Amino acid sequence: MLDILLTVLIGFIVLGILVHVRYPWIWLDIQFFLLVLRGLKRFIKWKNSGTFLPDLFEEAVRKDPNKVFLKYAEQVYTYKQADENANKISHCLKELGLQKGDILSLMMFNEPAFIWIYLGALKIGVKVAFLNYNLRAKSLLHSLDVSGGKILIIGAENELIKAIQDIKGPLENNSIPVYISGTSDPPPGFISLTNMYCNASKEPISATEREGVKVTDPACFIYTSGTTGLPKAAIVTHARCLRGSLVGSYADMAANDVFYIVMPLYHSASNLIAFGGVIASGATIVLRNKFSARCFWDDCRNYDVTIIQYIGEICRYLVAQPKNSQDGIHKIRVAYGNGLRSDIWQEFKDRFKIPRILEFYAATEGNAGFLNIDNKFGSVGRLSPLLQKIFPVEFVKYDIEQGAAVRDSNGRCIKAEKGEAGLMVCKIKKDSEFDGYKGQASLTNSKILQDVLVPGDQYFNSGDLFTRDDMYFIYFKDRIGDTFRFKGENVSTMEVSNVLSSCSFIQDACVYGVAVPGYDGKAGMAVVSLTEHQVELSNTHLRDIFHHLQELLPPYAQPKFLRLEKEISLTGTYKQMKVSYSQDGFNPAAIDSPLYIVDNRNKTYVVLDSKLYEEVVRGDFKL
């Protein structure tokens, strides 16, 4: 008997070794499966019982009513107080005539009232359209029109009031009343929500008020940044809200955690993932009205923050701050978010002593995402052949010049190889639906690829390029709109940005392509901002940039133009305004900022003046 057991044991050991040699990534798959299974069980339980975000919040209230839910500056609210404030908003909205299925538009900075209004609306089945508070004029009108909101609620800040006053005529024509939260004495033409709120009942809202709301119904609408056109209102269902809240569980978020939210609450990262995760875990929120690199770590220490979230360039701004003896002194155990660039990843982790970075990839309207649970440098997650059987995501070859996926003679997309940049596409099926954009069917259809691998299939086009390594870790490469082609070669703006930013005197870089007469494709141009105490690019700096780029980049990828700015323009969600810069071109007569052009003969960059510009346009000056 002992011999048999020993033989079986040896067999298992040999089998394990063979599997490890043949499939070294399988153990990572098993670890991921176990983690996802835990979240999936919670999601199925919620879905089957008809439990949505307001139900999870009320459950947390019942469990520990006196636990601190929200800290904002000097204000502190328990779960019970937050629930009562949300109830008051529910009663206000009912008094204003809003019913289950109606929509309200909301434009506010980060403040407690934002959360009361959102929760209050969800309690009675009202949907919320989150407007980017940076929108103005045409973009703001478009967003309001697309939202279909019966009313608009705004914060009391003067800049928000001014933005609405500028479009007051069209709003009145559409009979959309505007309510202000935060003042009892509103300007003419506005109505005080505060006065109603102060007199409203805080009695509980019955769950029957939202009876009949389905998990596939919209809970809110979150707008894309609109960097390439007018904002699109992505439909966010209750199911998507629940899935977003589960990201916190992958970071082992628990009731004793304190989550620091600095990103705008109108954005999916802070709303679906951070806010939703806190509610699902019964944790505490520390809310700040706007991100401040100078105050970030002090806030984390003062509020005993344990989890932080990043997006876009936030980490870069933190790294750019002067080094401090307090760096790394905090209680943070995990930072999660997306867009942490590889050139500062290790510095951010080491300098600020972040034990774990949970980088993820997701799009507000997307039907798939990745999560780097392995703390793997630079990666957004993994997708092995085994995981691919469960998560129907493909990476297909993409033609930058044609602006389309490459197809074979049968009209089918061609899968990208490991190590090759491929366009991520996600199969649309029952459990990975693409909900699209509200009121914009043509835009919704434009994001769907047909006949990708077999006739009749449909895939969501993420618009993003990725590469994979031998262990199937995935690395974000670039947006297809951010990748351009010059002299027959594809150029990744992210790669060039990372190289430029590694110059000791360059704070940040925004890279894009500009059309130049006589050249196919687009030539590279980079907006750069300098580190502290640097105000201009000296001749030494310009030579150093040239040699730095020459050493690390192929000739076609080296920027032909430089533009110096004090700060690089960003959207409200910290995305670089590449489209706007690209539209400016490289004409010194149209740009006030210092411009430079590559001088290959003298191995440097030189000032681009009107005379040199004309030579480039005529073809007399070769790039």
Question: Mind sketching the topology for me?
Answer:
Layout (H helix, E strand, L loop, with lengths): L1 H21 L3 H24 L3 H11 L4 E5 L2 E4 H17 L7 E5 L4 H12 L3 E4 L6 H11 L3 E5 L2 H8 L2 H6 L4 E4 L9 E2 H7 L18 E6 L9 E5 H13 L7 E4 L6 H14 L2 E4 L8 H7 L4 E5 L2 H7 L13 E5 L3 H10 L5 E5 L8 E2 L9 E2 L2 H6 L2 E4 L1 E2 L4 E2 L16 E6 L13 H6 L1 E3 L7 E11 L4 E7 L4 E3 L2 E3 L1 H9 L4 E9 L8 E8 L8 H14 L8 E4 L13 H7 L10 E5 L4 E4 L2 H9 L5
Parallel strand pairs: 1-11, 3-4, 3-5, 4-8, 5-6, 6-7, 10-11, 10-12, 12-13, 13-14, 27-28
Antiparallel strand pairs: 1-2, 8-9, 14-15, 16-23, 17-20, 18-19, 20-22, 21-22, 22-23, 24-25, 26-27, 28-29, 29-30
Helix pairs in contact: 2-10, 3-11, 4-5, 4-9, 10-11, 13-14
Structure overview:
The chain is α/β, with parallel strands linked by helices. It folds into three domains: 44-290, Rossmann fold, CATH 3.40.50; 385-432 and 443-479, Luciferase, domain 3 (Roll); 484-618, GMP Synthetase, Chain A, domain 3. The chain is 35% helix and 22% strand. It contains 20 helices and 30 strands. An eight-stranded mixed sheet has the order 2-1-11-10-12-13-14-15. It has a seven-stranded mixed sheet with strand order 7-6-5-3-4-8-9. A hairpin with an 8-residue loop joins strand 26 and strand 27. Helix 10 (238-250) crosses helix 11. The chain is globular, with a radius of gyration of 26 Å. InterPro entries: AMP-bd_C, AMP-bd_C_sf, AMP-binding_CS, AMP-dep_synth/lig_dom, ANL_N_sf.
